[in-house]
Amino acid sequence: MAGLLAACGGADPEAATAPLPAVEAVAVRDPSGASQITATGALARQREAQLSFRVPGVITELTVDEGDTVRAGQVIARLDPTTVEAGRQRAQVELDRARRDLERDQALFDKGFVSRQRIDDRKSALAAAEAAYASAAFDRRWATLTAPAAGVVLSRTMAAGQVVQAGQAVVTLADAGSPLVLRAPVPDSQAARIAMGASAQVRVGDQTLPGRVILIGGESGASTGTVDVEIEIAAAPGLRSGQVATASIGAAPSLGGEAGYARAPAEAIQEADNGRAFVLRLDNGVARRTAVEFGGFDGDDALIRGLPAGARVITAGGGFVGDGDKVQVVDPTALVAQAQNARGAAQ
């Protein structure tokens, strides 16, 4: 009797209750729909300016710091005026001399003592002296740096007491009246599918904001092979220039999509060769190795053809599943947790 019971109970109870392999699966997307292009970049005000002096000198006053708000016309920095004022005074002396020379020779010309050529030369010298004085006076005004518009100081690269060269940035100012934009590089092969005004969803931290494409660069970077795309986003509290954001941009289907290829995550492809690929298709909880026509990759998507509408394919966990195996579909976080637990048990 014991032997009979042993024979009847010979099946391994652990094998009978072993859990099914856990996988992640998604539905293949309709080939007629528009695709999404993902790009990551930094937020910035559409109008940002690096403010600098037109002339070199020593900074004697710098009134702002990073994060400060400024009003239009507010004084931001001043140079020691000694050098530029000396230049203005020299130009004034030369201008006065040119005027006296012309007046003296004009009187001699009226009496017939000097030629017309002499008068013409004096007039040319006076015009040059007037231009030099105007330039020196202009430089004198530029010894004071003011804000061209109300805004926020994004950065300050100099300090009082430092020597600054002409054109060297002192502060970077963001125009508070300009919209906030995301500037992101997009591979030139994908940028051609983005249209001006295309809608986008921009994720910044835990916020997702609507946006639209307002600028597509006209030139691809020689070293990067990317085109800069600018997306205007809706105003939201807490956003700052320099924050990293990711945009999902609506784009026209690729040529493959127009030819009738459906889209699936690239992770669903198990093998691909010469226009043919294999995927694991879900069929009532069973994984079916299925051959499909393969049109290549488009960004994060694989272009495939030959699956019925609404078919679901395995994108994660398929490496441990064979054709005909029963599986259980779990959400991505559960699948990651399961893998971590398995690693912990093995250790």
Short recap of the structure:
With 347 residues, this protein is of the alpha+beta class. It is built from seven helices and 22 strands. α3 packs antiparallel against α4.
Order of adjacent strands in the largest pleated sheet: 2-11-14-13-12-15
Give a short account of the largest sheet: 6 strands, antiparallel, barrel
The helix/strand series, from N terminus to C terminus, equals HHEEEEEEHHEEEEEHEEEEHEEEEEEEH
Uncertain spans: 1-7
Radius of gyration: 36 Å
How many strand units? 22
The residue-averaged pLDDT reads 79
Q: Structural class, from helix and strand content?
A: alpha+beta
Query: Separation of termini?
Result: 43 Å
Strand content: 35-45%
Oligomer: single chain
Distinct helical segment count: 7
Outline type:
elongated
Question: Helical percent range?
Answer: 25-40%
